[in-house]
Design goal:
Two copies of one chain form a homodimer.
Chain A: H1 11-22, E1 26-29, E2 32-35, E3 45-52, E4 69-75, H2 81-91, E5 97-102, H3 105-117, E6 123-128, H4 148-161, H5 166-178, E7 180-186, E8 206-209, E9 220-223, H6 227-241, E10 245-254, H7 260-275, E11 278-287, E12 297-304, H8 307-314, E13 317-318, E14 323-324
Parallel strand pairs in A: 3-4, 3-5, 5-6, 10-11
Antiparallel strand pairs in A: 1-2, 2-4, 7-8, 7-12, 8-9, 10-12, 13-14
Helix pairs in contact in A: 2-3, 4-5, 6-7
Chain lengths: ~325, ~325
């Protein structure tokens, strides 16, 4: 294993130091990444978090128009309640706090505990569970939360910025999740620094369909195929779960080790697939947004937009990983 | 080899199709990627290009405040003169055209030929040769052009947007190159789709210091070391070539297969190194900007800023890969 780290133990801390150094608009304190400047009075605060190793998720989405704070855990490990409580208190500008939680058992438990213990704060949680690949998995009861997290954080963040109340921000966040679906395919395993070897074995001839973002098993393994065929597998899985219809927000996401060129090849296939349905790619993202360390592979996430969601998606955002319109 | 492509032959064309589908503000025609809307009268046109496989370079930097057109060649292969001539003619709004050329023999020849043949257009070329690793290499007489290309394209693009004349845009572009230095380190080789196997062998215990962006050999191989040690090797190489002094623009760039988390670990070390010199990280980029397909590794590029260059760096930009301030 060759990784650009100092030690496996210090990797998360060291990376947070790098984020702080690179982004003066962020403040990193006690394992929480904040927007510098503190809470805006009257604005709903948005807190998310989860295991590290999925960068830029979540800390890369802290900033104007998106998250107020992100709580990174150790690699592939939930943040602890103390981090979440601290973040919740710090970002509450008097209008309450929304917790955006990916559906993994550890995350759900720790965010729930934090919400209970932060009793002076009005907290509502929204669960993201967009991955259609499997019903339960190694770390999940129900569906896993993956790519839709980016959509939920962006759209809820824009609505909070407009001054909407907590109940409304939470309602729309939940609606984005309900309208979103994801499916991922792995070409290789990831390797965690502490394990030092691939999480699972995948022969050089096969791919894993429906992979999770921690290397959890998917639906099945099949022989490696063309971008067109793999895109079709992913899109059929999404379409059969929630029909592709109307204006879509589409993300073709790299798992960390996939060249951007290949993601564009895939995006062309995804766009062609959508054209064949009663739908249109209205907005899109192509790049590394929800990764799994050095895994090679991709996921596709689609969200059925309406006018309100499109407007909120287009609203200005200024974070390390998503930035436009100001 | 597992790659998300349809065929090795169609990979570049398919990826360009994906870019066109993902970015309505771009227009792709005859292997040239343009800003939609055509040339702005009186604005100097900026054209760059080079082999594919370095995405987002160059097509990902086409847009407001940066390039007017990019000419992608086949993978690791210069674009042909016809592409460059076509792009040059199309973006000339009457104020002439700047060619931004990375210093590789094929690119230099083909851009020169295109500049000669586009005789109705006033063309000035600027050569980028920022890589301090080696003096000559497999594909270069003199130093190779790598990360500084992003700085040159951004800063010259901002100046052109302000309406500066061609001579001035070319002068500042050259100045950015002169003030910039790069050094790269590879953990693994890249694999081109047509070869189907790694370009070179690198044992699992070693890294290649001073790697080129096509897998050309660097200075030497050494045993794998910590992020701190590798960052120091790169920074010493830069510092001994051009002293780190004053305000710096610093890019920690991933080679395509390196997780963002590791790039932030490196950035922390780079920032700490700079602190130990008579210099300051005034602006920074952390991410995949000049890649080498699926190679794992990184490069560091620094540019010594002055007030004008800082202002131009900060100016609004709106491209697929670099976007801020509007």
């Amino acid at each position: 294993m060759k990784k650009l780290i100092n030690t496996a133990e210090s990797a998360v801390e060291d990376a947070l130091g790098g984020m702080a150094a690179a982004h003066p608009a962020l403040r990193v304190q006690d394992r929480v990444v904040y927007r510098a400047g503190g809470p805006r009075p009257g604005k709903v605060g948005l807190v998310s978090g989860g295991g590290s190793g999925h960068e830029p998720l979540h800390a890369g989405f802290v900033g104007y128009g998106m998250l107020d704070a992100a709580c990174p855990g150790e690699i592939f490990t939930s943040p602890v309640p103390d981090q979440i409580i601290e973040a919740t208190r710090a970002v509450d500008g008097g209008a309450g706090v929304l917790h955006i939680v990916k559906n993994y058992t550890g995350d759900v438990l720790n965010f729930e505990m934090a919400a209970e213990l932060a009793e002076d704060n009005d907290v509502v949680s929204v669960l993201v569970d967009d991955d259609v690949a499997v019903q339960n998995s190694l770390y999940t009861a129900g569906r896993r939360g993956t790519g839709a997290t980016v959509f939920v954080e962006k759209i809820a963040g824009a609505l909070a910025e407009e001054g909407a109340p907590l109940t409304e921000v939470a309602r729309v966040a939940g609606e984005v999740n309900e309208r979103s679906r994801s499916f991922g395919i792995a070409l290789t395993s990831c390797t965690t620094p502490s394990a030092g070897k691939p999480t699972f074995d995948l022969p050089d001839t096969d791919v894993e369909l429906g992979i999770g973002i921690h290397g959890e098993p998917g639906r099945t393994r099949v022989p490696m195929a063309s971008a067109r065929e793999l895109a079709a597998v992913a899109m059929e899985a999404l379409h059969s779960d929630l029909a592709l219809q109307g204006d879509l927000l589409v993300m073709v996401n790299g798992m960390g080790g996939t060249p951007l060129m290949e993601l564009y090849v895939l995006f062309a296939e995804v766009a062609a697939f959508v054209k064949g349905k009663d739908a249109r790619v209205a907005r899109s993202l192509v790049g590394n947004y929800v990764t799994s360390l050095d895994m090679q592979g991709f996921s596709v996430t689609v969200c059925r937009l309406d006018d309100t969601l499109t407007r909120l998606w287009d609203a200005p955002v200024e974070t390390p990983a998503l930035r436009w319109g100001r």
